[in-house]
Amino acid sequence: MLSTFASRALGTERWTYRLLNQNTSSISNQNQTTIAWSRRWKAAFIGGAILVIVLAWIGLAALARALRIKYVSLDRYQDLCVSSYSTYGHGPVFHTPPNRRAVVTTLYSDGYAIGVAVLGHSAKAANISARLLLPYFEHKVSPKALCIARAVGWEPMPIPRIPPPKGEDAVHWRYKDQYTKLSIWKLDEMGVDSAVYLDADTMVRSNFDELFDSPFNFAAIPDVWGGRRGFSVDFNAGVLAFRPSTAVFGERHAKKLEIATYPIVEAEQAFLNLYFGPTALRLPYIYNANLAIKRRNPALWKRITDEMRVVHYTLVKPFVSNLGKPADALLSPEELDEAVTIVEGQYGGLFKEEVGWWKEEYEMMMMVHGHTIEQCYSS
């Protein structure tokens, strides 16, 4: 037998390699730990990358909002106004007789019927010397709602709906019927020379007869928004003093709506700002005391409170259902009491006093016309 050395020298013995004497279970645990840490690093890296992307997106969005050019009708003005409808009307000495004046609002559903009634009663209580005209949708407003409106002095007049010119989907759902407001310019056909339009969610606080004798053909009040937009040079279409003109309505409706460039989502208000932007008389906030003013600047609201002619319930509506019923539903007196209580607590009770004004006017209306209104409900 060859010796081990000789065997190796002659190549008759195979070289063999053996692992060192180690604990195999320990090796397995170390490998698993390494893999686990690797996965954690990958997850952390991916999570960090996602976080960076999200933060970058938020930052860019904030920057875009900060740099965004706010739409102002005067900056993007198009000359759309018919030449015969100038800035001035009949001159500063022209006085419109009461039978040729009108306070006008619109009623598109039963849900605003009580609001319309309170508005009409408040106008009468403030001794506004004008007719009360109520354009309404015949197919959407019930006989009960019309009965309630008539009880306080409104003259209902059915009108056809004017659809959004760019399609129904282009307009915010709350404003889909609002282009119909443009038809109030045809009131000259009913013998009206001077008119004040009031949204159905407004209420008269004191007399504004001076608006009927304004020398201007069109007047409105600058708008107020929440958030960054704040106080605006564009006007709010909830209160308008104007001289009706069927010629203007026909020319504007037939030719201008389709070619005008404005924020379509804001419907007729944006269009009117474009159309009357350079010629409108801008009135003080006392003629359209938008509740957004109080939320935006309580000191300003306090300053104008004693002189308010019209308060505008933009942010809270005492007559609209908060009880699970559709917004276009006519509330019973019992439901209305509950709805008012709910509205008083909205926005942390910020508008409790103003809701109280509306409630007081409603109660006064019911004292005078309650019997007739109750008969309307039972008809």
Automatic annotation (TrEMBL):
Domain of life: Eukaryota
Pfam families linked: Glyco_transf_8 (PF01501)
UniProt cross-references to Gene3D superfamilies, sorted A to Z: Spore Coat Polysaccharide Biosynthesis Protein SpsA, Chain A (3.90.550.10)
MF terms in GO: glycosyltransferase activity
TM regions (residue ranges): 43-67
Keywords for this protein: Membrane, Transmembrane, Transmembrane helix
Name listed for the protein in its UniProt record: Glycosyltransferase family 8 protein
Record organism: Roridomyces roridus
